[in-house]
Amino acid sequence: MFTYKLKTTGSIALSLALLGFSSCNETMLGEQPAATPTSSFEVLWSEFDQNYSLFELKNLDWQAVHEEFAPKVTDQLTDDQLFDVMSEMLAKLNDGHVWLVKPNPGFRRYDSGPEFPEGTFSLDLIRGELSEEKVFGPDDEPMMVYGKFKNTNIGYLYLDNLGEAPGFYEEQMKTAIAYLKTTDELIFDARGIEGGDDRSAQVVAGFFAENRELYMKTRFKNGPGHSDFGDWIFWYVNPAKSTFLKPVVVLTDRGTGSAGETFTLAMRKNENVTFVGNFTYGAFSDNPKTELPNGWIVAMSRGDFRDDAGISYEGIGLEPDQLVINTPEQVANGMDRAIQAAFGVLLGN
After folding, report:
1. 3-state SS, one letter per residue, for the chain
2. Which of 337, 343, 331 shows the shortest CA–CA distance to 123?
3. CB neighbours (10 Å) of residue 43?
4. Distance, CA of 192 to chain centre
């Protein structure tokens, strides 16, 4: 069975290249730790002990985790055996922003977060129902699709990701909203927005905002203790110069993660918006990367992201107003129950 796991924007190759310039953390200064299995394991555990942000939220005793897994590691372990032990330890976090990569030769990747079925959404299925379609990017993998549904005046807007700079979305959204302003209602499809830049999410949400509203606060680890955080940063959604304030349904699913979820938080402040579909993925924090002594790469959550009321949805996800879960079999047979439910909301059925 194919399963969905939260992915990070950008390629592994890019991450490895960037590490050459940005990996000046404590493990990279002074004398380098030996690239042995035991040393690499201890550095991995220590990096999380000092920098991971969600131990208290997850009520996880990381010292007890060390006591469980350290005895399994010796310098006689093969790479695959060490990778298996590290992966088993990281599974305790159940965090979609935590992953471990062993570069080539023998490439392996482990993702800590939960798995959800793939195939519960098909953009091609929806594009076949549009009488007018505007596409930005390659036709087979568009970055943005918008238009009108056949025999209706209901608009549709799809974003593939939020990984570009905020200015990119400001320009593209201006064009899309100018076109969609002639529609009576809009379905915004956020299914599959796996991540990107939270500032870009903020910009896109501003095109649907009527007032300036606090929607999120974040803080980041700034010391080795599990409770060591910097001050809260407050995030506001601000109305764009041109906005769409008519009824909107936002579609979410378990493929809506990271910046897709902070976008959803911002859209929840708009009274004209209804949410239909499945829970979002449940992985909000940023996840910087670190290189281990043996050259492996690990990503971890280092932030604490909460809504304006101080509630964290890490590991839970955001619940829609109307829960509608597509199955891969339904989508394969040409049925999108979430879209049908969105039409019901907008048409009062």
Report:
1. CCEECCCCCCCHHHHHHHHHHHCCCHHHCCCCCCCCHHHHHHHHHHHHHHHCCCHHHHCCCHHHHHHHHHHHCCCCCCHHHHHHHHHHHHHHHCCCCCEEEECCCCCEEEECCCCEECCCCCHHHHHCCEEEEEEECCCCCCCEEEEEECCCCEEEEEECCECCCHHHHHHHHHHHHHHHCCCCEEEEECCCCCCECHHHHHHHHHCCCCCCEEEEEEEEECCCCCCCECCCEEEEECCCCCCCCCCEEEEECCCCCCHHHHHHHHHCCCCCEEEEECCCCCCCCCCCEEECCCCCEEECCCEEEEECCCCCCCCCCCCCCEECCCCHHHHHCCCCHHHHHHHHHHHCC
2. 331
3. 21
4. 9
* pLDDT tens figures, 256-273: 999 999 999 999 999 999
241-258 residue pLDDT tens: 999 999 999 999 999 999
Q: Is the pTM of this model over 0.85?
A: yes
Rounded CA gap, 328 and 241, in Å?
A: 40
Distance CA 284, CA 332 (A): 30
* CATH T-level topology, domain 120-286+302-347: 2-enoyl-CoA Hydratase; Chain A, domain 1 (3.90.226)
Query: Given this chain, do its domains 3-111 and 120-286+302-347 carry the same CATH topology?
Result: no
* Spatial separation of the C-alpha atoms in residues 267 and 163, rounded to whole Å: 18
Mean pLDDT of the chain: 91
Domain boundary assignment for the chain: 3-111, 120-286+302-347
Place of tokens 């000092």: 50
Helix 62-69 / helix 37-51 crossing angle, nearest 10 deg = 170
Burial 322-333 (b: 16+ CB within 10 A, else e): eebebeeeebee
Read off φ and ψ for residue 254, nearest 5 degrees: -65, -10
Hey, what CATH topology would domain 3-111 get?
Transcription Regulator spoIIAA (3.30.750)
Facing residues of 274 across strands?
249
Who contacts 311 (Cβ-Cβ below 8 Å, separation ≥6)? none
